[in-house]
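This part of the workshop introduces the protein records we will be handling. The question running through the whole workshop is how a given chain folds. To make this concrete, we reproduce a full record directly below:
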Amino acid sequence: MAFAPVDEQLAYLKKGAAEIIRESELRERLEKSRETGTPLRVYAGFDPTAPDLHLGHTVLIRKLKHFQDLGHTAIFLIGDFTGMIGDPTGRSVTRPPLTHEQIDKNAETYKAQVFKILDPKKTEIRYNSEWFAPQKFTAEDFIRLAAKYTVSQMLEREDFHQRFQAEKPISLHELLYPLVQGYDSFMLRCDVQLGGTDQKFNLLASREIQRAYGMTAAEIVMTTPLLEGLDGVQKMSKSLGNAIGIDEPPLEMFGKVMSISDEMMWRYWELLTDTSMAGIEAMQQQAKSGQAHPMKMKQGLATKIVADFHGEAAAQKAQQDWSKQFQKGEVPEDVETVSVKYDEVAAKAGDGKAVKLDKLLARCGLADSATDGQRKLKQNAVRVNGDVRTEPVLPVTLPAELTLRVGRLLKRVTIS
């Protein structure tokens, strides 16, 4: 197979990468790959601990795609065994283990979602239960694996060290996780392993495990940044309410991307698209010189992201609907409609009917909770039928139909 020049490959692969350990080794393997026509084997592992993915997860998957774009072999490893242990990375408490049934269900969902980015015909899907099945990996094998690493090495890990100092429990099975991940690397015999910056300890441990099992050429480690969420501060997380799910409706996804700051937009361009750094830098120059408005560039970003997960037609429709909604003040015909029972949001209001807006916002999914709804009201972020509302109680006549808008998000609500 004919591969692109090594410098050209490296420029594409380094886009959006945080660290390469070591770049000189990656260059050597790319050169050898080009000489022999043999693609590199590159993998990223995901534990199916949740049923859905958000854009933050796709940063790593997209880097795997970049290797795939260049003709290398992309391996998507589903940690159906490690998912039962639970990755302790970034955890201040022990993660509860999942059942086989939960893991299998989530794994099927993951496969459907990742193929929105990766080419299913060119992607190797592997499961680490292939080599960790009880009949293949015995208790003796686990003892031999555990002998490859020391307790002092394990306590160098920041989150373990912090928990140890704070006298918070560290379960023994958590100490096995980096070793099991390292054994995955040994079994896959890959040239490159990808992971987020928070995975650096596990990734480096994998290199040590490979060497301990006799591999003279340990894998190269490439890390990718953790994507900030809609708040632009904390990493994207559904639990923090700042995430964009890749299965969200096109208009909702488009609107959320449009809500990020102009500064954060460039980071999203870098981490969530295949656009080259030269192309991104050219757009930045146009924005600085006033040749192009950042709003247009953000619309281009939102369209590109929505197209990746819903197709080009849906992306164009979302852009048109968003334009109607926010630039022309119209309500799109296909805006999501939510039905709410009056008793769920009722408020005391003399002889008439009224609803508690904070509860209504939470019930419609426009706020994470009633408390969050109160905060949005105080921030003048809530519009009802186009008018800003700050009062917690809204008089209504039943049955009522309202248009609720919070920031960039819009929903039509019927109350009966």
